[in-house]
Specification:
Length: 205
């Protein structure tokens, strides 16, 4: 990772992740996680406060960025759920087959370089009755908004660690071997449309 990605970007994402629209979405989706949870791309730890402590046994928090992990450390100190940090990217999950109950992704699939490979890894480690719980921004349904997503993509990727604005999130999840069981999608109030078309829901192996 570049110096920018290690030392500047984590603080930008720390600020963005604490904005009201992000907090609202996290409150809606994170409590769906149960059992042993693998969180892909936990970033600076904004999801930690939203876990249902009565439903989660353990969190395996995966992120390749030492800058993100450093900021998240202060949130870990107040976390009441056992948590193990996994300092690897989403394409490399050092867990046994069928070893977790929930895989959680929030604003993560947009940045993983080999996202299809990562999703197959997520499916591999999920137990047969496990769920993928996701909240991801992606490709908008409106032509005009999609054109803006295409125009902004180069800048977005340069400034935000490879983030793509227009990934087809439901298609990618399906190609990863999952079947979506519930899905909500729409523009998030308070966020520019090119950045704020969000898919959230759950999927099974």
């Amino acid at each position: 990772m570049s110096l920018y990605e290690q030392h500047v970007l984590p603080w930008i994402l720390e600020w963005l992740g604490d904005m009201k629209p992000s907090r609202v979405l996290r409150r809606q989706i994170v409590p769906r996680a149960t059992g042993t949870v693998l969180e892909i791309g936990f970033g600076t730890g904004h999801n930690f406060e939203h876990y249902d402590r009565g439903k989660v046994i353990k969190i395996l928090a995966l992120d390749p960025s030492s800058g993100m992990r450093k900021i998240a450390a202060r949130r870990l100190r107040s976390l009441e759920i056992p948590c193990e940090i996994v300092p690897l990217p989403g394409e490399e999950i050092p867990l046994e087959d069928q070893s977790v109950d929930t895989v959680l992704t929030t604003f993560t699939l947009c940045t993983i370089p080999q996202v299809s490979r990562a999703l197959r890894e997520m499916r591999r480690v999920l137990r047969p009755a496990g769920r993928l719980v996701f909240c991801e921004h992606g490709r908008a349904p409106d032509d005009g908004v999609r054109r803006w997503q295409g125009r902004l993509n180069p800048l977005q990727k340069a400034l935000f660690g490879g983030c793509h604005l227009d990934r087809r999130i439901p298609d990618l999840i399906g190609e990863g071997g999952f079947q979506i069981e519930d899905l909500e999608a729409g523009y998030v109030p308070g966020i520019p449309k090119a950045l704020g078309y969000v898919y959230r829901g759950t999927a099974r192996r």
